[in-house]
C-alpha cells in the first residue's frame, strides 16, 4: 500500500497504477532483465568467472538506499542500524576488491608468482585467500607478497589509495554515531542562534493526529497552540467553512499569529482561519506557554517571528496600522514614564541615604554630649 492524504491505500489496481507511473519502475525493469543470457550467443566475448553481464543488477542501488533510509528513520535503534550498515559496506568493499584481485590473478595466471592467487583445487580456498589479501591491503596492514609486475603494482597502489579514502570515511561515520549517542546530554542547554531556538522548540513538541474531515482549529477560537505538519495535508477554508483558500503540506506550520502579541492585530489572540484535515494528518503541537518560554530566552527569534507575523497580517488585511501606531506610541509613553519613575526612585533613594547618614551623625553627636555631661556630673 501507499499513503494518500494520510490514508493508507491498499487497492491493488491503484497501487499498480501508481508504481507503473513512478520513476522506479523503468529502473527496476532494467535491473531484472536477464542480460547474462547474452553470453550464450555465439561470438559474444565473455570472461570466465567474472559475471560482468549481470552489472545491470547495480541499478537497484537507489532502491537499496531508499530501503536503508526508511529502516533508519523507523527503527528504535538507529545507531545500531548505522553501525551494522557500515559493517555491511566494509565487507562488501572487501568482497569486491577480492573479486578484482582474483580476476587479475586469473588473467596473469594462477600461481604464476608469489603475489597472485595460488591455483588451489577448491574454489572456497581461492576465495578465502583473495579475501584475506584484500583485507590486508584495504586495512593497510601490509605483510602482502611483493608485487613483481606492472599490473600488480598498479593494483596495489589503487588499493592503498582506496584504503586511505575508506578509512577516512569509516572514521567519520563512527564519529557521527558517537556524537549522536552523546548529544542527548547537552540537549537541554540553550544555544545562541537559530539552531538553539529550534532545539528548544523541538524538545517541547507534542504529537497529535487528526482524522479526515476534522477541524484542527476554527476561525474565532482563542489560540493556545501552534502546529507543525509532519505528514498529511490540511485545507485552509474561508469563512463559509467550504471554500478552499490553500492547502498546507508537510514541513509547514500555522497558528503562530494568535500566540504572539502583535500590535495592531485585529483578531487579537483568536484564530484567523479554519484549518481542516483532508486525510489523516500527523502534527506536532506547541503550546503558548512553551513558546513564550523559548522566545524569552531568544529575543532575536521573537523579533523575527513578530516581523514575519506582521507581514502576514498585512497581506491578509488583518493589521490595523492606526492601532499599531497608537500601541507603539503608548508603549513609548509607558517606557518614558517608567524611566521617569526609575529616575525619581533613584533620587528618593539618594535623599533617603543622605537623611539616614545625617540621622546617624546626629545620634553619634548626641551620644558624645551625653557622655560628656555624665563625666561632668561624676
Automatic annotation (TrEMBL):
<protein>
    <submittedName>
        <fullName>CNGA4 protein</fullName>
    </submittedName>
</protein>
<dbReference type="GO" id="GO:0030553">
    <property type="term" value="F:cGMP binding"/>
</dbReference>
<keyword id="KW-0472">Membrane</keyword>
<dbReference type="GO" id="GO:0017071">
    <property type="term" value="C:intracellular cyclic nucleotide activated cation channel complex"/>
</dbReference>
<keyword id="KW-1133">Transmembrane helix</keyword>
<dbReference type="Pfam" id="PF16526">
    <property type="entry name" value="CLZ"/>
</dbReference>
<dbReference type="InterPro" id="IPR005821">
    <property type="entry name" value="Ion_trans_dom"/>
</dbReference>
<dbReference type="Pfam" id="PF00027">
    <property type="entry name" value="cNMP_binding"/>
</dbReference>
<dbReference type="InterPro" id="IPR018490">
    <property type="entry name" value="cNMP-bd_dom_sf"/>
</dbReference>
<feature type="transmembrane region" description="Helical">
    <location>
        <begin position="124"/>
        <end position="141"/>
    </location>
</feature>
<keyword id="KW-1071">Ligand-gated ion channel</keyword>
<dbReference type="Pfam" id="PF00520">
    <property type="entry name" value="Ion_trans"/>
</dbReference>
<dbReference type="GO" id="GO:0005223">
    <property type="term" value="F:intracellularly cGMP-activated cation channel activity"/>
</dbReference>
<feature type="coiled-coil region">
    <location>
        <begin position="331"/>
        <end position="358"/>
    </location>
</feature>
<dbReference type="InterPro" id="IPR050866">
    <property type="entry name" value="CNG_cation_channel"/>
</dbReference>
<keyword id="KW-0407">Ion channel</keyword>
<dbReference type="InterPro" id="IPR018488">
    <property type="entry name" value="cNMP-bd_CS"/>
</dbReference>
<keyword id="KW-0812">Transmembrane</keyword>
<keyword id="KW-0813">Transport</keyword>
<dbReference type="InterPro" id="IPR032406">
    <property type="entry name" value="CLZ_dom"/>
</dbReference>
<keyword id="KW-0406">Ion transport</keyword>
<dbReference type="GO" id="GO:0044877">
    <property type="term" value="F:protein-containing complex binding"/>
</dbReference>
<feature type="transmembrane region" description="Helical">
    <location>
        <begin position="86"/>
        <end position="104"/>
    </location>
</feature>
<dbReference type="GO" id="GO:0005222">
    <property type="term" value="F:intracellularly cAMP-activated cation channel activity"/>
</dbReference>
<feature type="transmembrane region" description="Helical">
    <location>
        <begin position="153"/>
        <end position="174"/>
    </location>
</feature>
<keyword id="KW-0175">Coiled coil</keyword>
<feature type="domain" description="Cyclic nucleotide-binding">
    <location>
        <begin position="198"/>
        <end position="295"/>
    </location>
</feature>
<dbReference type="InterPro" id="IPR014710">
    <property type="entry name" value="RmlC-like_jellyroll"/>
</dbReference>
<dbReference type="InterPro" id="IPR000595">
    <property type="entry name" value="cNMP-bd_dom"/>
</dbReference>
<dbReference type="GO" id="GO:0005886">
    <property type="term" value="C:plasma membrane"/>
</dbReference>
